[in-house]
Amino acid sequence: MLSLNDTPFQPATLQLTGILGMQAGHAWVALVFCILYLISITGNLSILALVVREPALHQPMYYFLSMLSLNDLGVSFSTLPTVLATFCFNYRHVGFDACLVQMFFIHTFSFMESGILLAMSFDRFVAICDPLRYAAVLTNSRILAMGLGILAKSFITLFPFPFLVKRLPFCKGRILHHSYCLHPDLMKVACGDIHVNNIYGLFVVIFTYGVDSVFILLSYALILRAVLAIASQEQRLKALNTCMSHICAVLAFYVPIIAVSMIHRFWKSAPPVVHVMMSNVYLFVPPMLNPIIYSVKTKEIRRGIFKILHKSQS
């Protein structure tokens, strides 16, 4: 039966779920999510504040890091309303149009992160392979243009998604399998011809994750060749050490994506909780890990943190 607010094709609301099989422990799950959000939001805001306050961090590498932190905040705030409503207040309903908006922003920020990591790999490539022209190549205007280009690319490629979903009838129920809205999840409850959605979704994944990852690998192949050409082993290690933070951030982002894809492709009989947990790792772990990685591995960030702590104690 359709309610008065429903159309013959679309429900007025969709129902979100927590983590299947763990309903009894939702209070603990809510605590875990709150801790993840607290670490992610505090860490990324701290990175942004450090870059703004410290003149020594007004360099291309840290401008790109600021973009990454802003994007990670976008990921966190995109999922936060429905996740907290589901786990903390047991409110599981989300409006259909609100669900489409959330889906758009979650996917947009996710694809933007891939583009920012590619820009950061280019930054490391120029710093190591052509250090004398580093400041001339990565000017403030070019960094801004790269950031706007990443934003435009993600926005334009993801913009059709809500409209492609909205044209579909939904007759397989209203229950989604996550505490937030994702395009693949919506496709599971849609009926009608979803070939266009699947084909366009595959195109977007290849055009973003696929192309970006190939160029990141190419950048590091060229970086490795340049590093191996350095005569001094100490200088080799020093050059590679400047890339470690970025390599860890790339792994934190791409490993969960690859794991989700492998499970979906080769382990279709996996329990639903496995798919849900991997999707949560994919969305929640990188925004939490990135500020930790850069705080631990980057001397200038650590120095800025110690400087602020020292001022607060004096």
Automatic annotation (TrEMBL):
One of its GO terms (molecular function) is olfactory receptor activity. The chain crosses the membrane at residues 27-52, 73-92, 104-122, 143-165, 199-223, 244-267, 273-293. Keywords: Cell membrane, G-protein coupled receptor, Membrane, Olfaction, Receptor, Sensory transduction, Transducer, Transmembrane, Transmembrane helix. It holds the Pfam family 7tm_4. PROSITE patterns: G_PROTEIN_RECEP_F1_1, G_PROTEIN_RECEP_F1_2. One of its GO terms (biological process) is cellular response to lipid. Residues 43-294 form the G-protein coupled receptors family 1 profile domain. It is found in: Cell membrane; Membrane. It comes from the Eukaryota. It is a multi-pass membrane protein. One of its GO terms (cellular component) is plasma membrane. Belongs to the G-protein coupled receptor 1 family. Putative odorant or sperm cell receptor. PANTHER family: OLFACTORY RECEPTOR 51I1 (PTHR26450:SF66), OLFACTORY RECEPTOR 56B1-RELATED (PTHR26450). This is Olfactory receptor. It comes from Ursus maritimus.
